[in-house]
Amino acid sequence: MAEVLVYVDHVDGDVRKPTLELLTLARRIGDPVAVHLGPGAGNAAGVLAEHGAVRVLAADAQEFTDYLVVPKVDALQAAAEAVGPAAVLIPSSAEGKEIAARLALRLGSGLITDAVDLEAGEEGPVAHQSVFAAAFTTTSRVTQGTPVITVKPNSAAPEAAPAAGTVEELAVSFGPSATGTRVVSRSRRESTGRPDLTEAAIVVSGGRGVNGAENFALIEELADALGAAVGASRAAVDAGWYPHAHQVGQTGKTVSPQLYVAAGISGAIQHRAGMQTSKTIVAINKDSEAPIFELADYGLVGDLFDVVPALTEEVRAR
Ligand code: FAD
């Protein structure tokens, strides 16, 4: 079976969930080979193997930490040339998309970004994208070179599929452009203790109906009772009530949790684009005609200032 390279998104060997999703999708196309760049391959190997990595190609060098994406592109190019994979899969983060674009150019390959599903095809992997605010789905495949495909987080549920996961050293030599952009400093965002929005199993989002930054405490309390991440509509973000990093939608994050709670959100198409693949959607809105109810599995017509605290209390009591 052909091998499929999967770029590992990690923090010091702590592998992020989108990579495990990619390993699951990669198994539809071939044997996943994880490419781990930077420190921590030893720590990462276990979870990569549990999710189907037949091999882990690892390279550690100061360049991966000290410079922006080009050293990683150099390493992925080396891996692609050594393996001759059926495809290279990369998480659709801002960094992932830049790496993918540069890699595709280097390999003379076609590129597909923001896929939401992948399958094997007779002439190579086939990718599905959700476009025009999720109004259409496109199906495409790369017709030139090794397909380089970025996949949106939450496109698949990570499945365990134990494999050997043997760690092998990847030999990398850096080109002249590798050290073109140096990282000056890094700062970690203060942790809220809540799960990452794009990876969370439950998301509670607030919109214009929340009516003020101070009232987002209600949304946070319900989120904390449920162990959820907090999201926001663009109206709430534009009003300065919640940070842009939490915006869900076409110009924000795409989430696909098991449970999505939308409070005081009307359900504009641009908001739906970021959450409509959630498994169960609960909408709380005082307007029974709000479009969000067309999408919701459970709709609560009422004032969120009554409903949300009541829900929080009920969840806490269980
Ligand atoms: P509104 O549409 O104003 O809805 C507020 C809702 O709250 C109403 O349905 C109202 O009935 C309800 N409500 C009010 N008070 C209460 C209460 N006390 N209790 C219960 N319900 C109450 N939007 C996004 O969200 N994400 C995006 O990424 C995004 N990208 C965009 C990109 C482009 C190019 C454009 C043009 C728009 C984009 N938008 C995006 C904006 C989008 O079109 C909507 O304007 C936005 O989603 C509306 O946010 P909202 O639902 O919070 O506000």
Automatic annotation (TrEMBL):
User: Residue limits of the Electron transfer flavoprotein alpha/beta-subunit N-terminal domain?
Assistant: 4-183
**Is Electron transport one of the keywords UniProt gives this record?**
yes
Q: What is the lineage of its organism?
A: Bacteria, Bacillati, Actinomycetota, Actinomycetes, Kitasatosporales
Transmembrane regions: none
Q: Where does FAD bind?
A: 208, 233-234, 247-251, 264-271, 285
Listed A to Z, the keywords are: Electron transport, FAD, Flavoprotein, Transport
Report the source organism.
Answer: Streptomyces marincola
A GO BP entry is:
fatty acid beta-oxidation using acyl-CoA dehydrogenase
* Protein name as annotated: Electron transfer flavoprotein subunit alpha
- Function (record text): The electron transfer flavoprotein serves as a specific electron acceptor for other dehydrogenases. It transfers the electrons to the main respiratory chain via ETF-ubiquinone oxidoreductase (ETF dehydrogenase).
- A molecular function GO annotation: flavin adenine dinucleotide binding
What family, per the record? Belongs to the ETF alpha-subunit/FixB family.
Q: Which cofactor does it need?
A: FAD
> Pfam families per the record?
ETF, ETF_alpha
